[in-house]
TrEMBL record:
UniProt entry keywords in alphabetical sequence: Hydrolase, Pyridine nucleotide biosynthesis, Pyridoxal phosphate
The name this protein goes by in its record: Kynureninase
EC number per UniProt: 3.7.1.3
NCBIfam families reported in the protein's UniProt record: kynureninase
Catalytic activity: L-kynurenine + H2O = anthranilate + L-alanine + H(+); 3-hydroxy-L-kynurenine + H2O = 3-hydroxyanthranilate + L-alanine + H(+)
MF-aspect GO terms: kynureninase activity; pyridoxal phosphate binding
Quaternary structure and partners: Homodimer.
One of the Pfam families matching this protein, by short name: KYNU_C
GO biological process terms held by the UniProt record: anthranilate metabolic process; L-kynurenine catabolic process; L-tryptophan catabolic process to kynurenine; NAD+ biosynthetic process; quinolinate biosynthetic process
Length: 423
């Protein structure tokens, strides 16, 4: 059984503990929401100020060349590639995850249709996804299914393998589920999709910077992901998009903007896509946001000399396992049910509990007590663990505060019942 002292000892022995210094954290708060909005890397404030005051203020238009602004989508893409098992030149930073998902799903459906031309195979009219996938993924897929006269079919994770057949065009999944933290087997599901002749599209929103990912090793076809969660890129940070090199010169994405053109500054009237992943850019990149995002990505890459994603994963499993153990021990009898997988191999870097009554209000009361997680409708208390800055002692203290809020019934007070726009 763990106690406060043993947690502190684990922090002393933690070879990743110095990474915490990179972040601006409030002394009295325990932040368990890096899966929603990562913490501010100290370097980002100074870097954004430099970009605003010097590069924009002094350099003005010259900075597109002199400060390397024009190359940022690729430069940041190469850095993220190191975290997700992609090669340099295969990934770019652009737009939002939703928009990138629209691009890659369209590209995937286009490839499947092109391959089916002249074939005697039955046409592929099914898009498969997970019922509890993040809503934006489902909304984008639903829109595309309507546009292409296809059907979007939503399944439980354990039903997917049985449903992959010759009528499936694309299997689109989120690697780590936003509500449960369940992690899917990317390699096995991609292989099964390919065996059925379908393509596999992965959303890495809760994976990039959180768990090791090997896109090329898994043979995935396309992937997208968020910059503002475990990559610590700041609110509304741009997202990323990856395509397997084997599709590079055949794939077309529908948002054919000038930044995805092979030679944007030739200003030709016809569209010629840039080679490879460059064609997934659309309009002018959000420069100031990208400067912040680069600091966020660097904060994760800082773990590379200490074992990188593998070392972060080991600590993440230890933190989430400790949290589950302490909550079940110290908050027993308070109606919390674990909804995240107990098996660490199936769990991302978050832990979620369901509670029939008061889940939203409990999260609000916890925030007032300086333990920040979030609520996901209808009944989930969600806690994200970022091993870059979360300590074992924080886990102890977080459970202490949760236990107090539940035992005192603090959450029943009226002020915690009013639901804000963002939960
Ligand atoms: C799995 C997943 N995909 C996508 C998004 C968000 O996409 P966007 O950056 O377009 O808002 C989220 C946000 O939480 C998410 O959890």
């Amino acid at each position: 059984m763990q106690d406060k002292i043993s947690c502190q000892r684990q922090d002393e022995a933690d070879r990743l503990r110095g990474l915490r210094e990179q972040f601006q954290l409030n002394d009295d708060e325990i932040y368990l929401d890096g899966n929603s909005l990562g913490v501010l890397p100290r370097a980002a404030a100074a870097r954004v100020q430099q970009a605003v005051v010097q590069e924009w203020g002094q350099g003005l238009i010259r900075s597109w060349n002199d400060a390397g602004w024009i190359d940022l989508p690729q430069r940041l893409g190469d850095k993220i590639a190191r975290l997700v098992g992609a090669a340099p030149g295969e990934l770019v930073v652009a737009d939002s995850t939703s928009v990138n998902l629209y691009k890659v799903m369209s590209a995937a459906l286009g490839l499947v249709a092109a391959d089916a031309l002249g074939s005697t195979r039955p046409s592929r009219t099914r898009i498969l996804s997970e019922r509890s996938n993040f809503p934006t993924d489902l909304y984008i897929a639903e829109g595309l299914a309507r546009q292409h006269g296809m059907t979007l079919e939503l399944l439980e994770p354990d039903e997917i393998l049985d449903q992959l057949d010759e009528r499936v065009a694309v299997l689109m999944l989120t690697h780590v589920n936003y509500r449960t933290g369940r992690m899917l087997d990317m390699a096995a599901l991609t292989r099964a999709a390919h065996d059925a002749g379908a393509l596999a599209v992965w959303d890495l929103a809760h994976s990039a910077g959180a768990v090791p990912v090997d896109l090329n090793g898994a043979g995935a076809d396309f992937a997208v992901g968020c910059g503002y969660k475990y990559l610590n890129g700041g609110p509304g940070a741009p997202a990323f998009v990856w395509a397997n090199a084997r599709h590079a010169d055949r794939m077309r994405q529908p948002l054919s903007g000038w930044m995805g053109h092979a030679a944007p500054f030739q200003f030709t009237p016809d569209y010629q896509p840039a080679p490879g992943i460059g064609r997934y850019l659309c309009g002018t990149p959000a420069l100031l946001s990208m400067t912040a995002l680069e600091c966020g990505i660097d904060s994760v890459l800082a773990a590379e000399p200490l074992g990188g994603m593998q070392a972060l994963r080991e600590k993440s499993i230890a933190l989430t396992g400790l949290f589950i153990e302490l909550v079940e021990e110290r908050c027993a009898g308070h109606g919390l049910t674990l909804v995240s997988p107990r098996d660490p191999a199936l769990r991302g870097s978050q832990v979620c509990f369901a509670r029939e009554e008061g889940a939203y209000a409990i999260v609000q009361a916890l925030i007032e007590r300086g333990m920040i997680g979030d609520f996901r409708a209808p009944d989930v208390l969600r806690f994200g663990f970022t091993p870059l800055y979360t300590r074992y002692a924080d886990v102890w203290e977080a459970v202490e505060r949760l236990q107090q809020v539940l035992a005192e019934g603090l959450w029943r007070e009226a002020r915690f019942q009013r639901q804000a726009a963002v939960t």
